[in-house]
UniProtKB/TrEMBL annotation:
Annotated protein name in UniProt: NERD domain-containing protein
Pfam families in UniProt: NERD
Record lineage: Bacteria, Bacillati, Bacillota, Bacilli, Bacillales
Gene source species: Salicibibacter halophilus
Start and end residues of each NERD domain: 1-110
């Protein structure tokens, strides 16, 4: 796709952002490619599927026939539209409004054959890479009255700041069962179990004292289990005496969080790949 992006030769200030992953409530959404222009934003869902592809928007799916086998995939146009809706909501939450957002699915495999199961309004949003140029020309003409003026750089900086890389998940890769993992905080000196006493972690084996031994445990949680954690999950995982203690520990770490008081999730920095 990089070749086609270079060939666009856009006349105005613009930014291509790839694999942008943003927080949304307690989850995340990710866009393959986001093009930001002074008039509109464009989301591109990139697919490199081979074979005979039949797009069935009525049932939100793509059927692939290849080598006598049939497979089903999610509708990439609906995926792109969902990302557009999430991005619009994110922008409105942070800026009070959103520029026009358009979404397309780009099929990059030249050997694939594209078919439609039945007439549908979404068909025009399935394109090949060479169609990007005329589509952008039409969008610039259509949205030229929606100039962002000097706000484009503000949007770009906010998106860069909010970007959250996907976490490496060892449990999924190595098929580890959650029940096989030990809860608790372990001593950095002797690996003994540590207990929370009067604002410190105290090792039950060697009596080593630490104020922040929980940080390593929460790094492991982010690596093995999830990139976000509730106060209840924190209490259970760190084996704390009460939920208020878990809340104080999480607040003191100055973590970003989302959700209301009862549904709040704290986002753990943890390990990233």
């Amino acid at each position: 796709m990089d070749y086609f992006y270079r060939q666009l030769d856009l006349p105005l200030q613009h930014y291509f952002v790839h694999q942008l992953r943003l927080p949304r409530n307690v989850d995340f959404f990710q866009m393959d490619t986001l093009l930001l222009t002074p008039y509109f934003f464009l989301i591109l869902e990139i697919k490199n599927l081979a074979g005979i592809l039949t797009f069935d928007h009525e049932h939100q799916q793509v059927l692939r026939e290849q080598g006598g086998q049939q497979e089903v995939f999610a509708d990439p146009v609906l995926q792109a539209e969902q990302q557009a809706a999430s991005l619009k909501a994110w922008l409105q939450a942070h800026f009070g409004s959103s520029p026009p957002i358009h979404a397309y699915a780009v099929m990059t495999n030249n050997s694939s054959i594209l078919k439609n199961a039945a007439p549908h309004a979404l068909h025009h949003q399935i394109i090949r890479p060479p169609a990007l140029r005329p589509i952008l020309q039409a969008l610039f003409e259509k949205e030229k009255c929606h100039a962002l003026e000097d706000k484009l750089n503000v949007y770009v900086e906010a998106l860069k700041k909010a970007y959250r890389p996907a976490r490496y998940c060892a449990m999924g890769k190595y098929d580890i069962n959650r029940a096989d993992l030990r809860n608790g905080v372990f001593c950095p000196k002797c690996s003994g179990v540590m207990k929370w006493r009067h604002g410190n972690w105290v090792c039950s084996r060697c009596e080593h004292v630490s104020r922040d031994a929980h940080r390593k445990a929460l790094d492991d949680y982010a690596l093995l289990i999830s990139s976000h954690i509730s106060t209840g999950e924190c209490q259970a995982y760190l084996q704390l005496p009460g939920i208020n203690t878990a809340q104080r520990i999480l607040k003191k770490m100055n973590l970003t969080h989302s959700g209301g008081t009862k549904t709040r999730k704290y986002h753990l920095p943890g390990h990233r790949r």
